Each structure stands twice: as C-alpha cells, then as structure tokens.
Amino acid sequence: MRLNKIFSELSETLDKLDQDRESILKLSRMIIRDSSIAIKSIHRNELDQYHERLLSIRENHKELQELVNKNPGVFLKHLKTPEQEYSEAVAFYSIISDEPLPLPSELNIDPLNYALGLADVVGELRRYALDNIRNSIVEDLNYILEKMDDIYTQLFSIDYPSGLTQDLRHKTDQARGIIEKTRGDISISLQMSDLKRCMEDREEK
User: Fold this and answer.
1) Which residues neighbour 143 within 8 Å (Cβ) at sequence distance 6 or greater?
2) Could you say which of 3.40.50.150, 3.40.630.70, 1.20.58.2140, 3.30.360.10 is the CATH number of the domain covering 14-97?
C-alpha cells in the first residue's frame, strides 16, 4: 500500500532530522558554555584558558555549521545564540588586547549574529571597567569608554526594519544605558584619582 511507503519515507526523513537536531543542540550548548568560560578567563587574565576554549569553540562551530547547512531552512535559527556568544568572546578579547576586531567573514559567522554579539560586549566592557576602578587601575578607562562609544555608534547606524535586524535595536538601546552609567562611574573615578594625586603631591612638598 502506497500510504505505508509514504509514511515510511516520512519517518526516515524525520528520524534523520531529529538526529541532526540533537547533535546541533549539543554543539550549540558546548559553544555557549565555552564562550562563557572564555569571557570569564579574560576577566581573570587567564589568557591560556581563553585560547584553549577558543580552539574548542572553533572546532565545534565548524561542525555545527556543517550540520546546519544540510538543512538550513530547518536549522539556520540554531546558529544565532552560539554565534552571538562566540562573537562576544572574540570581540571582547580583541578590544582588551587592543587588537583589530576580526571580520565576521574571517570567523565564518553571520554578520547579524556578530553584531548582536558586539552589542553584548558593551556589558562585558562595563564589568571590565568596574573591575579596574575597584583595583585603582585608571589608565585604560578612557580607552574602554571610547571603544564602548564606537560600538554603540556603529550599532545605532543600522537602520533597518526589525524583521531584518531581529532584536538588535533593543540591544542597542540597552547598550546606550550601560554606556551612560559607565561614563558616570569613570568620570567620578578619574576625578577621585586626580584629587588623590594632588593631595599626595601637596604632602610631598
């Protein structure tokens, strides 16, 4: 009976899709986890750990893309979050190390997912700046704020319908608030540092 054959073929197709989906979700979780650990490693200045995680992310990302490309109409949406987290980790490291940001094409990442990751980097840069303030390290604060402003300016320039940019506008608005709070914190910190230096100079005289 042809009905049996029809549904037999359907079951085979769905079984294969389900297997690929499970593999995609597993790889996605691994990339997200490793990206989170990589970012924490940067904050802790454990750069060997960062590079180790980055190698794992690259390998898993390549495998993830191969699976997604087999059925992009079904699986393309599963690239968004892992690529966003991957982009965030790489961009954060590049900024902190004062290195050029890699291009999305160099990482083989969708440009929109890359931009979404960049929007999240603003929050990590605020955390990095606050850590420096707590440790009385003020030399890099203006540099960090400048990079945050640069990212926001570029994000704000993306003026397309939300159907194309997804939640990029919302993330851009969040970044603006984070930057303004950070600007205030840095301004107070630098003023206090200048005041402390003036008092120390007066005491020496």
Assistant:
1) 98
2) 1.20.58.2140
Fold observed for domain 110-205: Methane Monooxygenase Hydroxylase; Chain G, domain 1 (1.20.58)
Give the integer Cα–Cα distance in Å for 37 and 47. Answer: 11
Q: For 29, left (φ over 0), alpha (ψ -120 to 50), or beta?
A: alpha
Question: Strand, coil or helix: what is 28?
Answer: helix
Tokens representing 167 are: 């939640």
Distance CA 152, CA 98 (A): 18
Question: What does the domain layout of the chain look like in residue ranges?
Answer: 14-97, 110-205
pLDDT at 194: 64
**Is 95 in contact with 101 (CB distance < 8 Å)?**
yes
Read off the pLDDT of residues 1-12 as tens digits, 9 standing for 90 and up: 688 888 889 999
Angle at 17 between CA 14 and CA 19, to 5 degrees: 110
Q: CB 119: neighbour CB atoms within 10 A? A: 26
Distance CA 109, CA 61 (A): 9
Please report the pLDDT score of residue 183 as a whole number.
94
Separation CA 174–CA 171 (nearest Å):
5
